[in-house]
Amino acid sequence: MTHVNRREILQHSAALGLGTVLLPATGRLHAAESQSTQVPAGIVLETVVSGGLSHYSYFLADPERGQAVVIDPRRDVQVYLDLASRYGVTITHAIETHIHADFVSGARELAAQSGTAKVAASAEGNASYGYRVDRLLKDGDRITAGRIVLQAIHTPGHTPEHLSFVAGSQGRGRPWALFTGDFLFVGSVGRPDLMGVENTDRLAKKLHDSVHSAFRELPGELTIYPAHGPGSPCGAGIQKPEGDPTLARERKGNPYWRMNDQQVFIEALLRAQPPIPYYWPRMKQINTAGPEVLNGSLQPQMMKPAQFDQFVASGNVQVLDTRSQFAFAGGHIRGSWNIGYNEVMSMWGGWILAPETPIALIKPAQGSVDDPVAWLSRVGLTNVAVALDGDLSPWVKSGRPFDSYETMSVHEVHRRLGDESYTLLDVRQPSEWDQGHLPGARYLFLPEILRRHQQLDKSKPVVVYCGNGYRASIGASVLRSLGYDARTVPGSWDAWKAAGYDTVRPAKPGLASDTTRVA
Questions:
Q1: Are 372 and 359 in contact (CB under 8 A)?
Q2: What are the chain's domains?
Q3: Residue 32 binned pLDDT confidence (cut-offs 50, 70, 90)
Q4: Residues 8-25: pLDDT tens digits?
């Protein structure tokens, strides 16, 4: 095992803070020491990617024997049912690596909708559940599906009960895949700080021990299949694999694998973690108690403009406009919030929307209502009550009022640098600000606008920018609903950099989890 000194570790941990939500990781892995293993002939392994949450779930099937399992299913489970139909198999188990904090588990949903899948979850770490778990798993337990054999490995640290699963085949000696859940990612490991300050140090120590012992006997050529990829805040600086990610690559290139000193490991790991999303404790509670089984029941009522108008005016309602940032700027219902039509809506909806307050949805002309409903349900937002029939065009044609606002190009912002008649506002991740920001900008982390907007001067226009404009439109819409004259910069940081304009970088980056920054 290669050793690194403390200075190298801390320098790398600062860099890891850059690889956070919506920001690509910057590091590169070392070359693999060996080739990856191959899925055996006749066995199916399909990765189901849930964008926005950067969540990976896995469908494993043996069509010859007619059986399949799903590891870490998401809540909208039709994709797994479709795969089972395609391959002519029966799903026997919905397997959980741990009690998730970042999305609502689909294990109960898959069990209900398939009629055949049994929920299998960890019994390690004194885990308990408020719903029936068909099979409680301990370290070393096995699940079979046809010729597929999955053996549980207790890998505590991210959570006390966390299990990884090594896959092999009946009658075949060597394993061929390793499902690492939220324990091991490409270039990173799971964060240990999701169960309160009082548990963080204990879990971080367990995580260090798991990294250095749990997979010690496994061959380096094993391909790893983690539950998350780049963009997920479940780990700091998760990387995109170059080729097949293997244990050999991680043993050589993952910085945390090289940290033998436990205290150095903990210090570096905790320094790099991005802010914890507000909705995660609620996800943890839902998954522990047992998510409500929906059975496809989320069908908002479609309304014409007059009826939609009455519903919005009747009380406490969240109007969610999912059209593009450009369409929203050109015209929208006053007080509505803009979270654009994209799977990343799961994450930003979780950060910003209230789960108890009814949502009135507006979709793009070419979009469906079903997609946003599914994306929001992944984070427990099942409160989409109504949707406007069509996009905003019927509303406008009915003679009802709408709001609009100016946008500013990066060239106009550049010409007006130093102009104190408006506020230039950066709403990105703290680590993005540390990587570089526009001269004269103020900082306010997007999810904190609702609780910290009073720090802004309401008498001045607020010009909001982010990475590419998507988050800026969310921020501007929230500020406008609060009475600010807010505008956006389409292209934002990406366009500013492409134009070749100067940027400012802090002399010393702050903690990645600290959302306070001073220009």
A1: no
A2: 6-274 (3.60.15.10), 301-397 (3.40.250.10), 410-498 (3.40.250.10)
A3: very low
A4: 333 333 333 323 232 222
Query: Residue 142 corresponds to which tokens in the numbers above?
Result: 């096995």
Cα–Cα distances in Å, from 435 out to 269, 344, 390, 519? 19, 22, 41, 13
78: left (phi over 0), alpha (psi -120 to 50) or beta: alpha
Q: What is the mean pLDDT of the chain?
A: 92
Rg of the chain over all Cα atoms, to the nearest angstrom = 24
Q: What is the separation, in whole angstroms, between the first and last Cα of the chain?
A: 42
SS (H, E, C) 80-137: HHHHHHHHCCEEEEEECCCCCCCCCCCHHHHHHHHCCCEEEEECHHHCCCCCCCCEEE
Instruction: Give tens-digit pLDDT for 76-102.
Output: 999 999 999 999 999 999 999 999 999
Residue (of 321, 351, 347, 396) closest to 329 by Cα position:
321
Bridging pattern class, strands 337-338 and 423-426: unpaired
Percent of the chain scored above 90 by pLDDT?
Answer: 89
User: Rounded to whole angstroms, what are the CA distances from 232 to 52, 190, 228, 303, 312?
Assistant: 8, 10, 6, 35, 34
In 3-state terms, what secondary structure has residue 477? helix
> Between 224 and 14, where is the model more confident?
224
